[in-house]
What does this fold into?
Amino acid sequence: MTMLAALALTGAAQAGECTIGNARYRHDQAAWWLSFKPVPQMAASNQTAAFIIVLPNSGVTLEGAVYRPNGFGSPIWSISGPCATGSAEICDFVEDEPSAIYGNYGGVAGFLDDARGAGAPGQVILPRLAVSLWYSMYRQDEFEPDIEAGDVFTLTGCD
It folds into this structure.
């Protein structure tokens, strides 16, 4: 019984150490990677989280942000990066209407818990990401003919 309790406590400690700040995610279909990073010092006052998405086929890293409008409400996300491979011009990839960012916590989807030190969800869901990239200059390199890239990234580990 003591050994079982020790194993349970070890598992709980490891699970508690996996936060959005050190979690790594991989896209379910495409070769894309997502990881959270510290919010830049000069960010908007309502920015609560920052992340990057690596597009390895294009050799590009997109910069993402999570905001809480007026400091409360559902978390919304945005992402920007070079308009095309090798371009110095920066484009926003979800331009027209902001979307909420979701996390899958134990099989239940809900708004991403973006509080500092919050536990990492098993999946991060960015509605409209794939369609936004589909209608960008990255379509040729990032979308393989036999995949249907969606908006879900699955937890692969924590640093």
The radius of gyration is 17 Å.
